[in-house]
Amino acid sequence: MKIGYDAKRAFHNTTGLGNYSRWLIKIIAEFYPDNKLYLCTPKDKQTSFTEFIKQHINIHVLTAAQKPLKWLWRSRGVVNDLKQEGVNLYHGLSHELPFSIARSGIKTIVTVHDVIVLRNPELFGKINAAIYTFKLKHACKTADKILAISKKTADDLIELLRIDPKKIKVIYQGADEVFKQPANMERDETARVKYNLPEKYLLSVGTVEERKNLMLTVKALTQVPDIPLVVVGRQTCYAEKVKEYALQNDLSHRIIFLENVTFTELPSIYRQAEILIYPSRYEGFGLPVLEALYSGTPVIAATGSCLEEAGGPGSMYITPDDEDALADNINELLTDEPLRQNMISEGKKYAQKFDDAKLAEQLIDIYREIV
Question: N or C: which end of the chain has fewer CB within 10 A?
């Protein structure tokens, strides 16, 4: 089978959609090497994140030939290149499909990660929200099959876009192999020294934006003994609100903001944390939760979206506006070591549900079914 992928995010995004794209391409290439994979990107940007491509002879990269029209190639021109290569199936990895692909005879799949643009369009601005919504609706209408990365996303598609449930398949996202490696004390200590990490700390991972709800965690700190909070992620203007609250409540000295943490160092930061706190109001999946489980770090997350799917029954959950409950859970975990160890053990067991080989098999079965 010849499979085309919308790989722009794989080459140009270092988090989120980029992680998903690289993970999926990698497991299909590794577990099903008889297929030829064509990665479609306007520009071939070589980084440490895409080094794995060189290890697979069944991966080929397609780029835009006309530099002035690179922006248009991904939406339209790529279809001619796919036809010339004899591609059987095209997988849009992030809510989009080329506009002319429906008439090409090439079968299509689109992955939908979330429908935040429909739930909270104000987060994107009017113009961007309109563009993203149009692309999402077009892709869902055009695709032969829609992959949702959680049951919550599937339910939202059915509710908000009236998609036929039979057209949707839920296939979860897995975590990168770096989170599954045995603990390395030397590497962990190197990360601790480099980032001046405290001996004990709480952890938040993800873009510091309103939806991720870091403010709840900071408010809970007022009821938690003097343990620091390490925040890993790109900061938006929302971070200033959090910092202002921390300043007004004498918490600034307890919060450590880290940016530009390398992907290979992230597992060390997870492993040395007492708890990952992830009270996001809305997620499509919540990958940091799964990364924490693999890393042996207990998780407290929020109800209301899909985080129970990522964290399983062994994690703790609070409503995203209840700082009192969050503080209670943090204090309980910090003082009850048997409970903490049980959560670590149950989390590692639950994480096996997201085994790469199993997920790759589910993906290839869908590919074969469509083609």
Answer: C
CA distance to 78, 141, 147, per residue, from 87 (Å):
11, 21, 20
Nearest to 14 by CA among 124, 176, 240, 129: 176
Q: What's the fold here for domain 2-171?
A: Rossmann fold (3.40.50)
In terms of CATH, what superfamily is 178-353? Glycogen Phosphorylase B; (3.40.50.2000)
Instruction: Give backbone dihedrals phi and psi of 219, rounded to 5 degrees, phi first.
Output: -65, -40
Q: Give average pLDDT by consecutive 10-residue segment, the chain, 371 residues.
A: 95 88 96 96 81 91 75 85 96 95 96 94 92 96 97 96 97 95 93 96 96 97 96 96 97 95 94 98 94 98 94 97 98 97 97 97 98 93
Phi, psi torsion values for 357, nearest 5 degrees: -65, -40
Is the fold of 2-171 the same as that of 178-353? yes
What is the model's pTM? 0.92
* Of 296, 261, 257, nearest in space to 190 by CA: 261
Asked whether 161 and 143 are in contact (CB, 8 A), the reply is no
Question: Domain spans of the chain?
Answer: 2-171, 178-353
